[in-house]
Write a structure and sequence with these properties.
Layout lengths: L3 E2 L14 E7 L7 H15 L4 E7 L1 H4 L6 H20 L4 E5 L4 H10 L5 H5 L2 H12 L10 H4 L1 H11 L4 E4 L4 H17 L9 E5 L27 H9 L18 H9 L2 H13 L4 H28 L1 H29 L3
Parallel strand pairs: 2-3, 3-4, 5-6
Antiparallel strand pairs: 1-6
Length: 349
C-alpha cells in the first residue's frame, strides 16, 4: 500500500457515472509503524476522501497463512489492524473494510485463475525466486520450505484484485509485479474464454518521497527492527525516538540537516516554520540532538494522539468493530460474488 497519483480514464456517455474502484490490502503481521502510516495509510485516506471513489481495503489474513502464524495471534492481529485502519481516516461511507478470509469468492476465484496461470509466470515471482536463490546459496534443495501459499501468493493477490473488479491498485516498487501478473491473467482469461469479464486494473505508482527513515537511518521496516510504532503510548514512543542514531557532532558545531534522520522525520510531521527554524540552527550551530529528539517526540505525539485514542476506543468496543467489519464484508462479498458468477459462466460452470 502506497501513495500514488494517477490520471483518470477518459469516459464518455453513460460510463461517466461509474464510480472508480480502488483496492488495496494490508497483511496483519504486527503493529503498524510510522513508515506504514506515512507511506501507505495516510495517502490511502487522502484517496478515500474523494466521495466519487469506492475504496476496498482488506486485511490480508489468507496471505498471512504462508508463514504459519499462531491462530490466536493471527485473529488478534487482524482485529488490531482493522481498528488501526479505521482510526487512521478510513472510517468513511465509501470505504469498505473487510477480512480477506470472509469473502469466499476470492479463494474460489484463485482456484479458477490457476487454470489460466502459466507455471512459468509464477516461477518468475520475486518472493519465490528469492526463496529459491537463498536455498541454492545455502546448498539446500531449491524448494526447501517453500509452501504453495508462498508459491501461489501472486495468484491469490490477482484474485483479490480481479474478483473485486478494481480499477486501480496502489503499488510500490516491490509490489508492481503482482499487479502485472493480475493484468496478465485477466488478459489470458479474455483470450481463452470471454473478453470483458475480468477488468484489467491500472497501477497507482508510489511517489519516491513516501519512504520514511527508521531509527538507524535505513527505510523504516519491521525486517530491520528500526520502527517507531504508530499506536505506541507517548512514553514508549519517546523512548523509541531517543534511540534514533545520530553522529557525535557537538551542539555548537554546524550540521547538515539533509543528512539527519531527525530532520527527515520532523519534515514529515512538523509545521514548515518549525522545520525551517531548526534547519537554520543546524547550519549555523547551536542545537543539540537531544533537544530535537524531544521536539520530535512532542510533534509526533500531537499528530498521532487522536488516531491512537480512536484506535483504543474501537478495540474497547468489540461490537462496533465487528459491525464495521461485517458491513464491509457484506459489501465485498456481494461485489465479488457477481464477478465469480460471471467468471464461472464464461468457463462453462
Amino acid at each position: 500500500m502506497t501513495h500514488a497519483t494517477a490520471q483518470p480514464r477518459r469516459q464518455t456517455g453513460a460510463a461517466t457515472a461509474r464510480r472508480t474502484v480502488t483496492l488495496t490490502g494490508v497483511q496483519p503481521t504486527g503493529d503498524l509503524h510510522l513508515g506504514n502510516y506515512v507511506g501507505a495509510i495516510r495517502p490511502l485516506a487522502e484517496i478515500a476522501a474523494d466521495p466519487a471513489r469506492d475504496v476496498y481495503v482488506f486485511v490480508a489474513d489468507l496471505h498471512a497463512l504462508n508463514s504459519r502464524p499462531d491462530p490466536a495471534a493471527l485473529r488478534e492481529r487482524s482485529r488490531r489492524l482493522a481498528a488501526a485502519l479505521l482510526a487512521c481516516g478510513l472510517d468513511r461511507p465509501n470505504v469498505h473494510l473487510y477480512r480477506q478470509s470472509r469473502v469466499p469468492a476470492v479463494a474460489r476465484m484463485a482456484a479458477l485463475l490457476s487454470n489460466v496461470a502459466a507455471k512459468g509466470l509464477l516461477n518468475r515471482a520475486h518472493a519465490y525466486k528469492a526463496s529459491v536463490a537463498a536455498n541454492v546459496a545455502a546448498g539446500r534443495d531449491p524448494d526447501h520450505s517453500v509452501n504453495m501459499g508462498l508459491y501461489s501468493y501472486p495468484l491469490l493477490m490477482a484474485a483479490d484484485i480481479l474478483a473485486l473488479g478494481a480499477d486501480e491498485v496502489p503499488v510500490g516498487a516491490d509490489q508492481a509485479q503482482h499487479l502485472e501478473i493480475a493484468v496478465d491473467l485477466a488478459q489470458q482469461f479474455s483470450r481463452t474464454y470471454r473478453p470483458g469479464v475480468l477488468r484489467e486494473p491500472r497501477a497507482l505508482i508510489a511517489e519516491p518521497t513516501a519512504t520514511l527513515p527508521g531509527l538507524d537511518g535505513r527505510k523504516m521496516s519491521k525486517s530491520y527492527d528500526n520502527m517507531i510504532t504508530l499506536m505506541a503510548e507517548p512514553n514508549v514512543m519517546s523512548k523509541q525516538i531517543r534511540r534514533i542514531v545520530t553522529d557525535s557532532t557537538p551542539p555548537e558545531q554546524p550540521k547538515d540537516p539533509d543528512r539527519c534522520t531527525l530532520i527527515a522525520l520532523l519534515r514529515t510531521f512538523a509545521d514548515p516554520r518549525t522545520v525551517a527554524a531548526f534547519e537554520t540552527r543546524y547550519r549555523t550551530g547551536g542545537v543539540g540532538y537531544g533537544e530535537v529528539k524531544q521536539l520530535l517526540a512532542n510533534v509526533i505525539d500531537a499528530h498521532v494522539a487522536p488516531i491512537r485514542n480512536r484506535y483504543h476506543r474501537l478495540l474497547s468496543d468489540p461490537a462496533e468493530l465487528d459491525a464495521r467489519l461485517a458491513k464491509g464484508e457484506q459489501h465485498a462479498r456481494q461485489r465479488a460474488d457477481r464477478t465469480l458468477a460471471e467468471t464461472m459462466a464464461a468457463m462453462g460452470l
